[in-house]
């Protein structure tokens, strides 16, 4: 498991703001992408027809590009196409912070003791992608 820092940049007409959204524990960059797509970003709305093979190809290319850039806030193509910011636009990205493999769940408890909001991602065969907010994952979750 790895600790990722999830960051955001919000652009608007008059100013912008950059910050840390949260910390996430996940296995790899693809899990981070899937977490952001499902729980935080608008990326699912970009491709609405799962049956359309052309859109499947576009989504696959988009996913590969965003994972390679570690988020749309780091993607030059996305930044070049920002326009009409009357209501603003928020982009997200991530940074690998620490490998937690050797520390296990003790590292999650450590982070919680310091008041750091931690999301944990897992893949459950019955429920698909799921998250655990501010808690150590247990067998009942």
Give the secondary structure arrangement, pairings included:
Blueprint lengths: L1 E10 L4 E11 L2 H11 L13 H17 L6 H5 L8 E11 L5 H9 L4 E7 L3 E6 L8
Structure description:
The protein has one domain (2-105). The chain contains 4 helices and 5 strands. It has helices at 29-39, 53-69, 76-80, 105-113; strands spanning 2-11, 16-26, 89-99, 118-124, 128-133. It is globular and about 45 Å long.
Q: Give the amount of beta strand, in percent.
A: 25-35%
Rounded average pLDDT: 76
The tally of beta strands, per DSSP, is 5
Termini gap: 18 Å
* Pattern of helices and strands: EEHHHEHEE
Q: Portion of residues in helices?
A: 25-40%
Note poorly predicted spans.
133-141
Tally of helical runs: 4
| Cα-based radius of gyration, to the nearest Å | 16 Å
Biggest sheet, open or closed, and with what strands and sense? Answer: 5 strands, mixed
- Helix- and strand-based class? alpha+beta
Shape: globular
Strand order of the largest sheet: 3-1-2-4-5
Quickly count the domains: 1
For the structure shown, list the relevant keywords.
alpha+beta, 4 helices, globular
Task: Please summarize what this structure is.
This protein is of the alpha+beta class. It is built from four helices and five strands; from the N terminus they run ββαααβαββ. The relative contact order is 0.22.
């Amino acid at each position: 498991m790895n600790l990722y820092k999830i960051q955001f940049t919000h652009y608007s007409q008059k100013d912008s703001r950059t910050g840390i959204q949260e910390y996430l524990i996940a296995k790899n960059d693809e899990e981070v992408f899937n977490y952001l797509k499902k729980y935080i970003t608008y990326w699912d709305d970009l491709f609405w027809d799962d049956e359309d093979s052309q859109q499947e190809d576009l989504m696959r290319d988009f996913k590969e590009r965003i994972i390679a850039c570690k988020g749309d806030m780091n993607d030059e193509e996305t930044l070049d196409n920002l326009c009409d910011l009357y209501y603003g636009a928020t982009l997200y990205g991530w940074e690998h912070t620490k490998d937690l493999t050797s520390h296990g769940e003790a590292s999650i408890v450590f982070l919680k003791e310091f008041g750091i909001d931690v999301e944990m991602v897992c893949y459950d065969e019955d429920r698909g992608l799921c998250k655990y907010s501010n808690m150590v994952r247990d067998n009942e979750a």
